[in-house]
Write a structure and sequence with these properties.
alpha/beta; Aminopeptidase; 2 domains; four-stranded antiparallel beta sheet; 13 helices; globular; binds glyoxylic acid; binds manganese (II) ion
């Protein structure tokens, strides 16, 4: 069977983005569905059958003894990407799950619990705005009603897109039967920062995911003509939004440890000779202490109102998602650290389905070194050797948990 990098090589051309560079694989796009087909075929090649649950999570079970599925050990990750993302964020965890299964079989491991393999939809929230949508639906961290009403940039609702992709919108929501099957969850992910470069180690065990949320600011002004409207007569929301971007950095800098980002800004209607009537701006804020995140967003909101008023505009703020800081199960992290001969422990500023599942089941994560330290960018990387070391570490951990 293939090594981890061979598995990834098979999908190296799926969802390439010629405009942005890297990969754009939004949930339910052709690219993401092609990846799910690839994954299903890889499962079939291993004698495993893929089943998609009512929240869009793809499951498969290695259960040679035909045991009840309740309390299984589960591993997996996601296949969707941010716009113009790297090759490893998500797919490395999926390929490593397949590879670790091959390694367990080669080693002759006889599992005393089933091993589940899972792929979660819309981990990035790059289409419908809420990250980890599949795991949030599974656990009830988002209600089906709220999820179904989410819209993508074209204005399609999650309900409509899911229905067109073959899902029954009435089926979404917390799923006790599926949750009962997850006794322990372990997600392997490419590291999205420089932690392992600095530690000179190929693999780490996660200690925590720092709290984070997303807010949408809509700045309303007066749409008008670029040639006939004198500067003093303008109520230009793009000017207010630009000042707000700078204010976001200032507020973040005044609160050490804050990461605050405006990575998406959309002027409406968006014409060269048109003063915008509205600008939508998405804010991402993260801090290890949730009270700081809340205070930072409150201060940014206050600054947004002040700036908007100064330009004769108004602003509306909507929270799209918020997740508190998650400390992974310390006993499980200690056990895994022991299995991996004292591998380093790292906290991460990136969000993961594991962070959502940690609220309901003992959960752990492994990180595999990224030699550029860059992620959500085509420069994200992982050497073939480290990818294989990561899969081997995952197989070691799963072997320990399964017997
Ligand atoms: C996903 O990778 C996120 O942290 O936003
Ligand atoms: Mn990811
Ligand atoms: Mn990501």
């Amino acid at each position: 069977m293939s090594e981890t990098s061979d598995l990834l090589a098979a999908i190296a051309d799926t969802g390439r983005d010629a405009t942005r560079g890297g990969y754009s694989r939004p949930v339910f796009s052709t690219a993401e569905r092609d990846l799910v087909s690839w994954y299903t075929a890889e499962l079939a090649a291993r004698g495993l059958e893929a089943e998609t649950d009512r929240n869009g999570i793809v499951w498969a079970w290695w259960n040679p003894a035909g045991l009840p599925l309740e309390g299984a050990v589960v591993t997996g990750s996601h296949l969707d990407s941010v716009p113009g993302g790297g090759a490893f964020d998500g797919p490395l965890g999926v390929a490593s799950a397949l590879r670790s299964l091959d390694l367990l079989r080669q080693r002759g491991v006889v599992p005393s619990r089933p091993l589940g393999l899972a792929v979660f939809p819309e981990e990035e929230g790059s289409r419908f705005g809420v990250a980890c949508l599949g795991s949030r639906l599974l656990t009830g961290a988002i209600t089906a009603e709220k999820a179904l009403a989410l819209t993508d940039p074209e204005g399609n609702t999650f309900a409509d897109v899911a229905a067109r992709s073959g899902f029954d919108p009435r089926g979404f929501g917390r799923d006790e039967e599926t949750l009962a099957r997850i006794g322990t969850f372990v997600e392997l992910h490419v590291e999205q920062g420089r932690g392992l470069i600095d530690l000179d180690a190929p693999v780490a065990v996660a200690s925590s995911v720092i709290g984070h949320g997303r807010w949408r600011f809509s700045v309303h002004g007066q749409g008008n003509h670029a040639g006939t409207t004198l500067l003093e007569d303008r109520r230009d929301p793009l000017l207010a939004a630009s000042r707000l971007v700078v204010a976001v950095r200032e507020v973040a800098a005044a609160n050490p440890g804050t990461r605050a980002t405006v990575g998406r800004l959309h002027p409406v209607p968006g014409g060269t000779n048109v003063i915008a009537s509205r600008v939508d701006l998405w804010l991402d804020v993260r801090h290890p202490e949730d009270v700081v995140t809340v205070a930072v967003v409150a201060e940014i909101t206050r600054r947004a109102q002040e700036i908007a008023a100064g330009e004769g505009c108004s602003v509306e703020v909507r929270e799209e998602s918020f997740g508190a800081t998650v400390d992974f199960d310390p006993a499980l992290a200690r056990r895994i650290t022991g299995v991996l001969d004292g591998a380093p422990n790292l906290s991460t500023g990136a969000g993961h389905d594991a962070g959502i599942l940690a609220a309901v089941v003992p959960t752990a994560m492994l990180f595999t070194r990224n030699p550029t330290g860059v992620s959500h960018s085509p420069e994200e990387a992982c050497t073939d050797e480290d990818a294989e070391l990561g899969s081997t570490a995952l197989a070691d951990v799963l072997a320990d948990l399964l017997v």
